[in-house]
């Protein structure tokens, strides 16, 4: 659905156009009102507007000037000009400012609806083009390096995807490799000299190192690389010619890759005046979990190279894990982080994350008490962070589970921990749901109190300013909670107040019109009759 903004220095006309035409029938979801060009720009800064209808002659910022200002920031917005003057010069300027339509006052309702319908059709055509398959492909190709880097990051972090999903994503980023393609992983650490430079020079040097690697390996191998969270560059090295895993680790292939890695160190030192350390993995198939290869390589790098400089850890030198060696629960630390899901109230995603954590705990660790403790402390930390980040207390969110938290970890089985964390998350979720509902109830009360106290000049924008919220968000929340839009509510409130004054006060009709926010008595009479079926005077006489 689309959003419309009507701009005119005659508030009665704006209100009439906003409330009396069947905008929803042509796809308009919300109608905003402004009495001047500057007010219109303020609304557009806080609310996404699709179509603007503006009078051409207004004090200060004219309609033409307003359209030119809109074009500078919101070039996609469609603008329709209303003019009381059949002036060729105005029409020329309207064409130059790319106004969608130029209509003469008084404009018929159907003519205006047709103009807005046309503007919406043009918007739909434009966005269809932007989101078309061809545009998507062009955009992907333009951003291939970034997309490839993001995919490699996801695989290194252990993101789960089926063989088919992986092959589809590889094809999307135009990497000519398959799940059974052999590869070696190379970890590259840039050392002191590179980080003594300023940020710009350091980035340029990193780019140069990657270019040298492409040049050295490029004749026989294909490289796919990204920078990880530790500052290492992770390279996947694939053979350009089809081969098998058995053929890859032949003496010649291993020696070739090691020689090229040594050449890379040499040329970086020679031409860039800095040192790098490298670690190479054993060859394996790409369908095997990259995250396991990556974690093993990082561990070997830290154990064997440590703080030394200008080292090359070759394929045959890897430290193999010992029997019974402890490992962390990878699902606890892979994105999305549990703390972020709980903070944002993404409850279904949090449930899925918990399922993955406990699946790993049960499948790989059994009832290892140390791993139960690891999961407990990590999950409690995430829960505590989310609750405090939302400015709440653990005691008020967790209820009875808080006492168990104070007592410390007392779980001896995975099932006990799962039961407790499920209850704790459920209690927190319930408290957050109540908080949202309480907040909305208070918001509705504030809106209605303000409208009742400022009936003559209340509008969606003035109410939004009063409650410090975006008009679009306020409008949606109010309609969601009450079933009635704010503009409809204000119109109904004004008519009810007018009816009460007609029955109980001696005020003249023009005075009542002014009290409920209508400057033109004729327009007030028209709106009143449309609501009650009779004129204000007939209502009073009756």
Automatic annotation (TrEMBL):
GO terms for biological process: phosphorelay signal transduction system. GO terms for cellular component: cytoplasm. Gene3D superfamilies: 3.40.50.2300, Homeodomain-like. Keywords: Cytoplasm, DNA-binding, Phosphoprotein, Transcription, Transcription regulation, Two-component regulatory system. GO terms for molecular function: DNA-binding transcription factor activity; sequence-specific DNA binding. Residues 445-542 form the HTH araC/xylS-type domain. The keyword DNA-binding applies. It is found in: Cytoplasm. Its main location: cytoplasm. The modification 4-aspartylphosphate is found at residue 55. The keyword DNA-binding applies. InterPro entries: CheY-like_superfamily (IPR011006), Homeodomain-like_sf (IPR009057), HptR (IPR051552), HTH_AraC (IPR018060), HTH_AraC-typ_CS (IPR018062), Sig_transdc_resp-reg_receiver (IPR001789), Tscrpt_reg_AraC-type_HTH (IPR020449). Residues 3-120 form the Response regulatory domain. This is Response regulator.
């Amino acid at each position: 659905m689309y959003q419309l903004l009507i701009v005119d220095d005659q508030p009665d006309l704006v209100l009439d156009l906003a409330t009396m035409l069947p905008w929803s029938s042509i796809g308009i979801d919300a109608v905003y009102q402004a009495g001047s060009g500057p007010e219109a720009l303020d609304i557009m800064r806080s609310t996404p507007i699709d179509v603007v209808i503006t009078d051409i002659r207004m004090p200060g910022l004219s309609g033409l000037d307003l359209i030119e200002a809109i074009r500078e920031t919101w070039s996609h917005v469609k603008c329709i000009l209303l003019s009381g003057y059949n002036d060729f010069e105005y029409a020329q300027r309207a064409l130059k400012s790319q106004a969608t339509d130029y209509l003469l006052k008084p404009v018929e309702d159907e003519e205006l609806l047709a103009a807005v319908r046309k503007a919406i059709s043009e918007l739909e055509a434009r966005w269809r083009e932007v989101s078309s398959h061809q545009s998507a492909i062009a955009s992907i190709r333009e951003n291939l390096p970034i997309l490839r880097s993001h995919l490699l990051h996801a695989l290194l972090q252990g993101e789960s995807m089926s063989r088919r999903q992986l092959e589809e994503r590889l094809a999307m980023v135009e990497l000519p490799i398959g799940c059974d393609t052999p590869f070696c992983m190379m970890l590259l650490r840039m050392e002191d000299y590179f980080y003594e430079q300023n940020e710009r020079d350091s980035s340029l040097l990193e780019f140069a190192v990657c270019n040298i690697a492409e040049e050295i390996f490029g004749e026989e191998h294909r490289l796919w690389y990204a920078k990880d969270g530790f500052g290492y560059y992770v390279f996947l090295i694939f053979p350009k010619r089809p081969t098998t895993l058995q053929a890859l680790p032949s003496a010649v292939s291993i020696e070739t890759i090691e020689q090229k890695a040594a050449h890379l160190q040499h040329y970086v030192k020679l031409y860039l005046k800095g040192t790098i350390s490298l670690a190479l993995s054993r060859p394996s198939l790409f369908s095997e979990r990259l995250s396991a290869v990556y974690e093993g390589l990082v561990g070997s790098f830290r154990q064997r190279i440590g703080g030394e400089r200008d080292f090359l850890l070759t394929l045959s030198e890897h430290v193999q894990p010992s029997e019974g060696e402890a490992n962390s629960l990878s699902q606890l630390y892979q994105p999305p982080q549990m703390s972020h899901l709980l903070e944002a109230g993404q409850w279904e995603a949090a449930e899925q994350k918990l399922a993955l954590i406990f699946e790993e705990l049960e499948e790989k660790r059994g009832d290892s008490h140390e791993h139960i403790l690891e999961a407990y402390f990590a999950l409690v930390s995430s829960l505590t962070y989310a609750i405090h980040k939302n400015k709440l207390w653990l005691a008020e969110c967790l209820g009875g589970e808080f006492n168990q938290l104070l007592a410390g970890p007392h779980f001896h089985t995975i099932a006990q921990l799962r039961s407790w964390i499920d209850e704790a998350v459920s209690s927190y979720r319930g408290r957050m749901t109540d908080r949202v509902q309480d907040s909305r109830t208070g918001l509705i009360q504030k809106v209605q109190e303000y409208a009742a106290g400022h009936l003559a000049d209340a509008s969606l924008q003035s109410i939004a300013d009063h409650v410090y919220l975006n008009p679009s968000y306020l409008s949606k929340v109010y309609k969601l909670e009450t079933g009635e839009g704010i503009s409809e509510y204000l119109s109904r409130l004004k008519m009810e107040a007018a009816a009460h004054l007609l029955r109980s006060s001696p005020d003249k009709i023009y005075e009542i019109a002014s009290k409920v926010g209508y400057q033109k008595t004729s327009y007030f009479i028209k709106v009143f009759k449309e609501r009650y079926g009779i004129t204000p005077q007939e209502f009073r006489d009756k």
